[in-house]
Each structure stands twice: as C-alpha cells, then as structure tokens.
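Pasting as-is:
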Amino acid sequence: MARCTAPRLGHRTASGRAACPACGGYNRSGGYGGGYGSYSVPHYSSSGSSGGSRVGGSGSSTKPRWSRASSTVVYTAAEVRTLTPVRENVEKRTTLPDLRDVFLCHAWDDRQGAAKELHDQLESRGVSVWFSEKDVVLGTSLLREIDKGLAKSRVGIVLVTTALLSRVRAEGIADKELSALLARDLLVPIVHGTTYEALREVSPLLGSRSGLNTAEDTMANVAAKLAELVTP
C-alpha cells in the first residue's frame, strides 16, 4: 500500500496532495481525488481563458486580483489566500517614499547560492531588493536587520534553507520577537531545500505562516509570483 507523504512533506497545496502516492491521483472529472476531497483545476492561457500554456508549478489553478490579464503566472488557491493579506499591506504602503520592493532575509551561507539566485531572478523582473550583499554590515544582528529591512521595504521574504534553520537555532531568536514581525503581514517564507515541518521545529510561529515552496515550483516561478505581488 502506498504511504501518505503528509508527515514528511506535508500537503500544503493541491500539487502536494497530487504528488502523494496515497492521497493524490488525477480523476476523470478534472480534480485531484483522495482523502482531502476533490480540487478543481482549471487551466489558464496568457489571456486568462481556459486552455493553453501556463507558467506555474504543478496544480496551479487560479489567478489573484492583482495579476494582470496578460500574465501567464497562475497560483494555487492556497497561495492566493496566503498572499492576499500581504498584497493588501503592499497597497497601503505604495505611497510611502524610498521603499525597496522586497527585503530578502537569508542565511549568510546562502549569500552566493540560493539567496543570490532569488535576488537575481527578482531584479531581472524589475523588483528592487534589499539584499545583505549590498545593504547589510557584517556582524550585525539577524533580527535587527530583519526589522530594519522590513521598515524600508514593502515586503519581507525569508528564504528558509537548512543554513537559515541552523542560524535561527543558534541565535535563539525568541518566538515573541518573530511574532512582532509576523503580525505585520509583511513576511513571506520561501522554503527551499527543506520543509515546513523542519521550520516549525525551529520556529513554530514562522512555520505557521504559509508561503511559497521551491519543492513545488521553480525558483523562477516563485520570483515571478513575488514580482506580481509587489507591483503597484
């Protein structure tokens, strides 16, 4: 009998459920069947109509209100629910002067790897990024820089990798401090090369915030979604 992958990988999105050998399986009615019920998956072309090609991970199913009609980027329903309050805060901050679009929080070990890849992907889409390689003085507190970066940016992205989990664990960032940041609805976790389960073991509060996952989408598509999120 096939085993459910939820304890190890989680079923945070339709694509996660679909990939599970126990709970997934695409049925003839056009939905993902299994223990979680069916999930209708319409397809969108570049004009937003049914049919045609699309940009997005497996199981992408809808487009948020802030996405232009010509956009080929589509999202799961869970991603839209997750990003909607962030977008509402972005819209409230559009008139504030001298803000970067995105503050990218990452582990020092990722500065030349995954963090730089995400930074480059965002900047190639016209997104201004507050990035440690350009903006952070060595030796400063991670939490202090997160707070400073969020104050100067429309959205904060936390690139969650094994290196970041190790750093958070070593520095002992308190849940109450993370809670103050999470309360702003300005943080989007990007899980890369690890799992939400591993994140929750280190920081239950940060792990409780849904975000995007490169296990279910490419880094390029994650960057495309973030670029749409912060575009006025």
